[in-house]
Amino acid sequence: MQTENIPVILLEEFSKKANPAFAKMAGEKYGLHAENYLGLRNPEIYAVADVIYPQLKNLPINELLAICSALLANGNKECRFTAFRWASKACKKLLPEHLPLFDEWLNQYMHDWADCDFLSTKVVGELFVRNPECIPQTHVWAASAKLFVRRAAAVTLIVPVKRIGVLQESFAIAETMLLDKEDLVQKGYGWLLKVAADRFPDEVFAFILERKNIMPRTALRYAIEKMPDDMRARALSRD
What we know:
This protein is an all-alpha fold. It is globular and about 65 Å long. The chain has helices at residues 6-16, 20-30, 42-52, 61-74, 77-89, 99-109, 113-130, 137-142, 147-155, 158-163, 167-176, 183-199, 201-211, 217-223, 229-236. Helix 4 packs antiparallel against helix 5, helix 5 (77-89) packs parallel to helix 7 (113-130) and helix 6 (99-109) runs antiparallel to helix 7. It contains 15 helices and no strands.
């Protein structure tokens, strides 16, 4: 297969399954960016992507990532999800040297929370697990003017805090974005705290109690969602 033809081949296959009504509904119901979205559900996207991937999986990782970059530049949502899917399948080959590329992806190609969360958890989060020395990059993202880059600062730590316990790094990012006015950023770091609480319940609860009077309600409710009722009541009470 000529790799330069992959975006064209994918778009042809995706177009056969186009569902404009679903694209419109998803945009309205889930807040997804519907422009250049053909309306395929995730399993349909993966089914097409996974047929082609075996022809690419033995490529050097930089060549595969170059193909993924070309798909992202294409602008089509199904192509973006394919790029993230293929990068995630090759996650064991990712190295610290690839972090600038993912920084570029975050800054240029995030159209909605679904793009952000797929890349953050399935690709960058896996890179961080294997290369925790890359985690300080999250502080750069947390200071970004771009909504989805800031959200990524928290969401990229969800897999690492679950797998390798990067609690202090997670607290630092949550602290930095504590008063962020964007709902999706609040939900992002609230989600991070909720996952961290599975492994560090006492530490996370203490962190929340110290900030409960200033933490936005959206973030607070996300963070305590899985806690016992008595702890939730304490966290929600105002002193």
